[in-house]
């Protein structure tokens, strides 16, 4: 199952984050990396467009995590709905959002839905990663610093 996440919707449900924080997206990615290491599920997180869109191609999350910014003039909800409707096997998707239109599109396509507040609780329970698993390369300190630098340039 692939997780398709409404990024800003999820940030709004996390007690340790706020959409007002300049590095909210980077902090969410740190939590998603930890979750991915534990669950091994492919993750695509979609954010609304913003100042970081121009820097998006430089962001290199670890394999298994994809970051997408909605194009100017659109928003994450529209991108999510489009991806759900165009997916060749939507029943293999788990959509994380509390937005009514996104949830309705996901259910209509047969995708599983997890409300953002429910996934936020699950995300906060993911254990810390203490060591690399065989064949897995954790992000380097340079990559982590690059993410933090990119997201703090707001």
Question: How are the secondary structure elements laid out?
Answer:
Layout: E1 2-6, H1 7-11, H2 24-39, E2 43-47, E3 65-69, H3 76-86, E4 93-96, H4 100-109, E5 112-114, H5 116-125, H6 141-151
- What is the residue-mean pLDDT, rounded to a whole number? 84
Specify the helix fraction band: 40-55%
User: How are the strands of the largest sheet arranged?
Assistant: 3-2-1-4-5
Tally of strands: 5
Query: How many strands, which pairing sense, and closed or not: the largest β-sheet?
Result: 5 strands, parallel
Strand content: 5-15%
Q: Structural class from helices and strands?
A: alpha/beta
What is the H/E order? EHHEEHEHEHH
The DSSP helix count reads 6
- Form type: globular
Which residue ranges are poorly predicted, with pLDDT under 50 across at least 5 consecutive positions?
A: 52-58
- Span between N and C termini? 33 Å
The whole-angstrom Rg is 15 Å
Kindly list the characteristics that best describe this protein.
5-stranded parallel β-sheet, alpha/beta, 5 strands, 154 residues
Quick recap:
The chain has 154 residues and is α/β, with parallel strands linked by helices. The protein is 41% helix and 14% strand.
Please explain how this structure is put together:
- This protein is an alpha/beta fold.
- Helix content is 41%, strand content 14%.
- The chain has 6 helices and 5 strands.
- Strands 3-2-1-4-5 form a 5-stranded parallel beta sheet, with helices on both faces.
- The radius of gyration is 15 Å and the shape is globular.
- 30% of the residues are buried.
């Amino acid at each position: 199952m692939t997780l398709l996440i409404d990024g800003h919707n999820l940030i709004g449900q996390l007690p340790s984050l706020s959409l007002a924080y300049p590095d909210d997206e980077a902090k969410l990615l740190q939590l998603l990396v930890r979750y991915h290491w534990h669950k091994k599920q492919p993750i695509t997180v979609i954010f609304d467009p913003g100042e970081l869109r121009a820097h998006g191609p430089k962001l290199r999350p670890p394999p298994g995590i994809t970051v997408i910014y909605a194009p100017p003039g659109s928003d994450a909800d529209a991108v999510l709905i489009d991806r759900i409707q165009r997916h060749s096997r939507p029943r293999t998707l788990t959509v994380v959002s509390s937005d009514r239109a996104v949830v309705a599109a996901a259910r209509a396509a047969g995708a599983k839905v997890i409300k953002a507040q429910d996934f936020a609780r699950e995300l906060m329970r993911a254990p810390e990663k203490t060591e690399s698993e065989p064949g897995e390369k954790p992000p380097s300190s340079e990559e982590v610093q690059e993410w933090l630098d990119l997201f703090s340039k707001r």
